[in-house]
Amino acid sequence: MALPKDSARFRLSVVLLASALNAVVLVGVIGALVAHLNDLPGEGSTDGIVRFLPLIMALAMIVAVGVVASALQLRQVLSVPLLRLSVAARRLAEGGLDEPVGEIGGAQEFEHLGRALERMRQDLQEAMTEAQRSNERSRTMLGALGDGVIFLDDKLRALEYNPQAAVLLDGLPSVGALLHQGVSLKAVFPELPEQLFRAALNEETALPLSIFPRSDRARHLSLRVFPARNRALGVRRAYIAVLRDVSEAMEIAQVKEDFLSTVTHELKTPLTSIDGFVLLLLAERLGPLTDKQRVALETVRDQSEALRRLVQDLLDATRLDRDELPLELEDVAIGPLAAEVAEAMRPSVEARGQRLELDLTPLHGLSARVDPFRLRQVLGNLLSNAQKFTPEGGLIRVEGRPREGQLELSVADTGRGIPPEAVPRLFRKFSQVERGDTRRAGGAGLGLWIAQQLMARMGGAMAVESEPGRGSRFILSLPMRTPQG
Fold first, then answer.
1. Could you report the per-residue pLDDT of 213-260, keeping only the tens digit for each?
2. Which of 155, 247, 285, 432 has its Cα between 20 and 30 A from that of 195?
3. Among residues 245, 261, 296, which one ends one of the domains?
4. What is the rounded distance in angstroms from the CA atom of residue 96 to the CA atom of residue 40?
5. Which residues of 325-345 are buried (b: 16+ CB within 10 A; e: fewer)?
6. Is residue 484 part of a domain?
7. Do 194 and 158 lie in a common domain?
8. How far apart are CA 125 and CA 322, in angstroms?
9. How many domains is the chain partitioned into structurally?
């Protein structure tokens, strides 16, 4: 009768049973012969052994043939499937994912193992294919970037880079050492201060780089270094360096600064002439004025003053950008200076129907090292803004107090306040906050930026607190000097 197709386990059982029966039969026959021969007297037993020796040898041969046949069957059932599994597993371990595992044969358990290996091969093949596709997509995206990207290890040595990085660094004498010879990025740019490098590694700033190729103009780059926190990268700590060509942006900025500087200087002379003639006319040095003429001239005077302040702001902004604005620092009593600036504003504040309150007593005898002219400029800007954005009947309050080694000056108003989403833009150059009346109030959006820059250059800081509908409070902080006697 034919065996079922999947009968490896049955065949194994039959082989083992047949081997056992052969052994039992052989042992039984030999035992019976030995017992019979023992019953023969003397030499008869010896003659019996000689007579039955061919039979014993024949039986032994039959059993041996059975054992060999059983061994061959065992090999077919056990050894061949194990060998096929071993070959398939070794091929997978060596990365041979294209060839299927194939038929294993043998017992059902071996077939299960074979199918499991085949599924593993297919899964690995799919994963490898997807990984290759993902890698190609990443390389394509990095290659299309206009920025240079360099993958650095914990010693800032280049491990990988995109083509644009090599293009941007072309002309740098040590570019080959950086990209191909394992030289640290820090060693390639030794002119950069250690403090700047630490700041860049903490994502605090962009490092300015200048590269001078043998031909063509200088190339200006900005360098940012970001920590790459991913254990799958294969290094203990890694960084991503991003290089950007800012040459064109720097040229545009320089052209803009030169233009602003030229225009503002050219405007100062005619404005001075206008102011002078308006003052002569208002003083009636050139003849009497009617009421309408006086009002018109006062309007010209006010607008000329506003334009003069704008020109001065543009000049200051240009000098600050170029780090060319000189400061004359000295120890100054902050309370009297703040009171002087505030009192100078009182007539215009009260003319608008607003109230001005001062609380500077806590600053008595306290000083800070500042440029008095520039601090007056900062306070005047804050008071002018408070006056613009405070309605009639509103309050403007100037306060001062020492706090943790700092002198704090604050200017608060009861105006419309600043929307929370606008606060981060407040100290940006040319940024204006829409509070409903900005167009009427005027301004170029430079005053607060200049004020913050001046405070920083005097060792201080500037902050703002605001709540829409309830007003704003600007706080100036300056390092305290020793009390004056």
1. 545 567 788 888 877 766 555 666 778 888 888 888 888 878 887 887
2. 247
3. 245
4. 71
5. beeeeeebbbbebbbebbeeb
6. no
7. yes
8. 59
9. 4
pLDDT, one tens digit per residue, over 326-356 is: 999 999 999 999 999 999 999 989 989 999 9
Structural domain for 338, as ranges: 330-479
User: In whole angstroms, what is the distance from residue 422 CA to residue 424 CA?
Assistant: 6
- In the beta sheet, which residues pair with residue 476? 409, 462
Residues 260 and 391 in one domain: no
- Within 8 A by CB and 6+ apart from 202, the residues are none
Pick from 252, 220, 215, 482: nearest CA to 368: 482
Say yes or no: 288 and 255 in one domain.
yes
DSSP type of residue 223:
E
Q: What is the CATH number of the domain that holds 421?
A: 3.30.565.10
In 206-354, DSSP assigns E strands to: 207-211, 219-228, 238-245, 330-333
Q: List beta partners, residue 223.
A: 207, 243
- pTM higher than 0.70, yes or no? no
* Residue ending a domain, choose from 304, 321, 338: 321
pLDDT of residue 19: 57
Per-residue model confidence (pLDDT) at position 69: 57
Distant-in-sequence, close-in-space partners of 329: CB < 8 Å, separation ≥ 6: 369, 370, 371, 458
Q: What letter represents residue 471's amino acid? A: G
3-state DSSP call for residue 474? strand
What is the domain-level CATH number for residue 241? 3.30.450.20
- How far apart, in Å, are the Cα atoms of 79 and each of 18, 73, 352, 445? 19, 10, 105, 87
Asked whether residue 485 is assigned to any structural domain, the reply reads no
DSSP code per residue over 62-121: HHHHHHHHHHHHHIIIIIHHHHHHHHHHHHHHTT--SS------SSHHHHHHHHHHHHHH
- The tokens for 438 are 């900005």
Q: Which residues of the chain have pLDDT under 70?
A: 1-80, 97, 102-110, 173-174, 191-217, 229-236, 433-443, 482-485
**Same domain for 159 and 230?**
yes
Long-range contacts of 255-258 (CB under 8 A, 24+ apart): 257/318, 257/321, 257/322
φ and ψ at residue 468, rounded to 5 degrees = -55, 130
350, 458: one domain: yes
Specify the amino acid at residue 71.
A
